[in-house]
Amino acid sequence: MRNTVPLLILLALLAMQGCSTPLVTKENTPHLKCTDDRPQLCTMQYEPVCATLKNTTERSYSSACAACSAEGTRGYTLGACE
User: Fold this and answer.
1) Does the predicted model carry a pTM greater than 0.90?
2) pLDDT digit string, tens, across residues 37-71
3) 49 bridge partner residues
4) CA–CA separation, 33 vs 68, rounded Å?
5) DSSP H helical segments within the chain, as ranges?
6) Short-list 50, 15, 54, CA closest to 66
7) Interatomic CA distance for residues 73 and 62, integer angstroms
């Protein structure tokens, strides 16, 4: 029992460190480019992205795969367009 107390304290400190990790947001994420090989099939997941189209307009898509499979998309950032 005495040997498990320091282990539990260490485990609690590591768990609290994970809570202080900053989340990935649109403001701190770089603009990601779509590859030339466009996806042919995407899963139905919802992780919205803001895509930049060739005419420099922006459009929200449900996922990076959906954005890059659309013709005319140059790249995207995480999060829906505002």
Assistant:
1) no
2) 888 899 999 999 999 999 889 999 999 999 999 98
3) 61, 78
4) 9
5) 4-19, 64-69
6) 50
7) 14
